[in-house]
Design goal:
Oligomer: single chain
Strand order of the largest sheet: 1-3-2-4-5-6-7-8
């Protein structure tokens, strides 16, 4: 079964593809869709998530294959921009590695690329214990807060979280914790902007530095005063950051360059 996707904006303009993080789906990009209405925007729900919840089992590899195929079908010679957050950023890295010439601009926001075998082993037993909490609204509100999911999106977030199957959640987390930079990532020819929040865990900042060092087309920045979820925390900043980077190759003032 094909992935669920929706198209917005100017169908004749450059293609801008949005890939959501784990625990959320394409609704997280609403503010970006509004801002980038002069682009041909596509939001895609990853396998087993959002409106793609009846597709094949989730994997980063499968997601990358399917989305690359979809881009090839829809691009028709247009410039291609891919924007990925967290799990979606990992998928973006995999896409760049599998087809190095397909994507002209890629925004990789908060991608983990340092596998942790111990944490991965603990996912199944710990999630089995805590899974009943997913349907608890107070617990969901705490989880939503860490992702900057505000009141306007909370009910959607809670509904999707409550409907997610145990095995799906385990599969997503195991994929997330196992991911590392693929061997062919260095071959990607497009421009790549790597970003991470200043308040994110050290492993996330080290991951951003690893990504930057693995492809000479990468520029990397640390965004001050934010954790995991800049596009939801401050969509205006995020949108303008992307637009200026694409149009002028400029980076926002006040950010820290990753070297």
């Amino acid at each position: 079964m094909d992935l669920h996707y929706q198209e917005y904006g100017d169908m004749n303009a450059s293609l801008m593809v949005f890939l959501h993080g784990g625990g959320v789906s394409s609704w997280m990009w609403e503010k970006q869709i509004q801002y980038f209405s002069h682009y041909h925007c596509i939001t895609i729900d990853l396998p087993e998530q959002g409106e793609s919840n009846y597709t094949e089992s989730f994997s980063i590899q499968l997601s990358a294959e399917k989305i690359n195929d979809l881009i090839e079908k829809l691009a028709n010679g247009k410039k291609v921009i891919v924007i990925g957050f967290s799990l979606g950023a990992q998928v973006t890295i995999q896409m760049l590695s599998m087809n190095p010439n397909l994507i002209n601009y890629a925004v990789i926001n908060s991608a983990l690329v340092r596998p942790n075998s111990f944490v991965r082993k603990m996912i199944r037993p710990s999630i089995k214990l805590t899974f009943p909490l997913v349907k608890n609204k107070s617990f969901s509100k705490l989880q939503a807060k860490t992702l900057y999911v505000g009141k306007e999106y909370f009910e959607t977030y809670y509904k999707e979280s409550s409907e997610m199957k145990l095995d799906t959640l385990i599969r997503i987390l195991e994929e997330n914790m196992s991911f590392e930079i693929p061997n062919n990532f260095y071959k990607a020819t497009g421009k790549i902007l790597v970003s991470v929040g200043e308040k994110e865990k050290t492993i996330m900042k080290k991951s951003a530095a690893d990504i930057v060092s693995n492809n000479t087309n990468c520029k990397g920045i640390i965004i001050p005063n934010v954790g995991h979820g800049i596009s939801l925390w401050n969509p205006k900043f995020f949108n303008q950051m992307i637009e200026k980077w694409i149009q002028e190759d400029a980076l926002p003032q006040g950010t820290i360059t990753i070297k």
